[in-house]
Amino acid sequence: LRSPPLQVRGPGLGVIGVSKGAEVALAMATFLPQVVATVWINGTAFLHGNPLVYKDVRIPPIPYFTERMIFTEMGALDNSAIFADPRDPAYSASAIPVEKIRGKVLFVVGEADRSFNSKLFAQLAMARMPPESGRLLSYPGAGHLIEPPGSPLCSISSIRGTPRPVVWGGEAQAHAKAQEHSWQEIVQFLELHLGPAATMKL
């Protein structure tokens, strides 16, 4: 069977990103005017680890402070302490210039995120964005990896580049409820700003 070629309906694009992907998604919304709807899930609003280079723009990163890594009783990595306080004036140049965003951004936060303080990053971004361009959904007890409903809670997993599994946080019941509610909100958000999804014929 041959699948029909994928087509972008347009005129605007939607972007969804989780963790580092949310950082990238926010940068795309900042610099690419065709991105009109962005779903940011437990990300940051500053460059970390690697610089952002786009045309004549270069945003320096905040370094990771790996010496602050914490090992849990199970031997997993808790990375929550390796991120510097983004409110430190020394890191202001690493902020993604979200004041340039012309689309809409839905920030989805798990308050039990053990990777970094996602709620703080979302609040800092919204404080600098154009009025009414951002909305925050914050879920007590939800961890870092908020996924579609029905996905099991992933509180610890291995990722490339780390010597041991990483702790993501989250309480099973609260996380499941967050996934159910946030998914409905994400779909409504994308349909509002991109139009309803077309029906696929198989």
TrEMBL record:
Keyword ATP-binding: no
Residue stretches making up the BAAT/Acyl-CoA thioester hydrolase C-terminal domain: 7-195
Keywords: Acyltransferase, Transferase
A GO biological process held by the record: acyl-CoA metabolic process
Single GO cellular component term: peroxisome
Superkingdom of the organism of origin: Eukaryota
Keyword Chaperone: no
GO molecular function: acyltransferase activity; fatty acyl-CoA hydrolase activity
Protein name: ACNT1 acyltransferase
